[in-house]
C-alpha cells in the first residue's frame, strides 16, 4: 500500500538527510504539550523538550506516537503575550526508562533568533517574538 500524500516534508527544505547531523542541537528541559489527532479527537500529551535545533526537537512523552504522525509542539511560556507552537512530524520513536523519546522534524525550520529566545527564558518577559507555524 502506498503512503498518503502529505504537505509535510520528510527532510528539511533544501537540504539532504546528512545536513541535519551538522546542525547544532541545544540541550534543554522545556515543559510543553504535544498535540496529536487520534481518530477524530485532539489528544494533548504532556511533554518535555530535551533537545532543540533549527529543524526539529527531541521530546519525552509518557505515550507512544507513531512515526509519521503530525503533531503540534506547544511550550509553556512565562509571558501571557506570546506562545510557541510549531507543526512537526514524528520521524523516530524509542522507549527509554523515562518514557518515549520522539524525534520530530518541524514543518518550517526555526530561525536562529527563535532558538535563542526559547533558550533564554528571562528575555521572554521583555522581548516578544512571533513564530511562524
Descriptive keywords:
133 residues, mainly beta, Thrombin, subunit H, globular, disordered N terminus
Spans with pLDDT under 50 lasting ≥5 residues? 1-20
Strand line-up across the major sheet? 1-2-3-6-5-4
Mean pLDDT metric: 79
Query: Shape from CA axes?
Result: globular
Number of strands: 6
Any idea what the CATH superfamily is called? predicted glycosyltransferase like domains
Rg (CA only): 15 Å
Residues in helix, %: under 10%
How far from one another are the termini? 31 Å
CATH architecture: Beta Barrel
Number of helices: 1
Written as H for each helix and E for each strand, in order along the chain, the element string is EEEEEEH
Q: Can you tell me the CATH class?
A: Mainly Beta
The SS-based structural class is mainly beta
Strand content: 35-45%
Number of domains: 1
* CATH level-3 fold name: Thrombin, subunit H
- Main beta sheet strand tally, sense and closure: 6 strands, antiparallel, barrel
Amino acid at each position: 500500500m502506498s503512503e498518503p500524500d502529505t504537505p509535510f516534508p520528510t527532510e528539511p527544505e533544501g537540504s539532504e538527510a546528512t545536513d541535519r547531523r551538522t546542525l547544532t542541537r541545544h540541550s534543554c528541559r522545556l515543559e510543553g504539550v504535544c498535540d496529536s489527532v487520534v481518530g477524530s479527537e485532539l489528544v494533548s500529551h504532556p511533554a518535555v523538550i530535551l533537545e532543540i535545533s533549527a529543524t526539529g526537537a527531541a521530546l519525552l512523552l509518557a505515550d507512544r506516537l507513531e512515526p509519521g504522525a503530525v503533531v503540534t509542539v506547544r511550550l509553556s511560556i512565562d509571558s501571557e503575550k506570546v506562545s510557541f507552537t510549531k507543526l512537526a512530524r514524528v520521524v523516530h520513536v524509542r522507549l527509554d526508562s523515562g518514557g518515549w523519546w520522539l524525534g520530530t522534524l518541524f514543518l518550517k525550520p526555526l530561525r536562529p533568533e527563535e532558538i535563542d529566545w526559547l533558550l533564554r527564558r528571562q528575555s521572554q518577559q521583555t522581548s516578544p517574538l512571533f513564530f511562524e507555524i
